[in-house]
Specification:
This protein has about 180 residues and is mainly α. It contains eight helices and four strands. The chain is about 60% helix and about 10% strand.
């Protein structure tokens, strides 16, 4: 299962799920996810911060899942060589502070990735290179801010969304820290 599919399955288990802002914005523009457009990265960052503030102001209960979020957005910005990298790095600890962050890294082998990319009509090998670079940046980011995280889970993308959601639920419930 993919990130959004997994998120939908988590809703069925009582989680609150927020889709990836970058993907939603990207659907409305002409350039590729791999293209450096600093204004796009700034817009994603501002939208994420606004959504964070709205979530906190609403006094939510339960477990919230946010697809990609600041940690993933920084990895994408780094892969694109965006001017926003510095801003993310300067603000990351403050962005993470209000939350009990449990990171789920969804793993996908090259063959599965290429199949999914071909379905979206993106240049396969170039996209694979780009996303593997994003993954490498993500690993470095998670190490750098590990003290701000409640846990990191690696999840195989081959199981069903229902099984993946069950494993994520077990992972999140295995800690005593909850965001609210």
């Amino acid at each position: 299962s993919g990130k959004t599919t997994l998120g939908r399955a988590l809703i069925e288990l009582g989680f609150t799920f927020y889709r990836e802002i970058g993907s939603d914005l990207r659907a409305r523009v002409e350039y590729s996810v791999m293209d450096r457009v600093d204004a796009f990265d700034r817009h994603v960052h501002q939208e994420e911060k606004a959504r964070d503030a709205a979530i906190i102001a609403s006094g939510p209960t339960g477990i919230i899942v946010i697809e990609t979020w600041h940690l993933g957005n920084l990895a994408f910005a780094q892969a694109r060589r965006s001017d926003m990298v510095r801003t993310y790095r300067e603000e990351m600890t403050e962005l993470l502070r209000p939350w009990s962050v449990h990171v789920v890294r969804l793993l996908m082998d090259d063959a599965t990735f290429l199949q999914r990319v071909n379905e979206k009509n993106i240049g396969s090998q170039e996209a694979l290179r780009f996303y593997r670079e994003v993954e490498n940046h993500q690993s470095t980011i998670l190490l750098k801010w590990s003290e701000c995280l409640s846990g990191i889970m690696r999840l195989d993308g081959h199981q069903s969304a229902k099984e993946g959601a069950r494993l994520v639920q077990e992972f999140v419930q295995s800690t005593d820290e909850f965001p609210w």
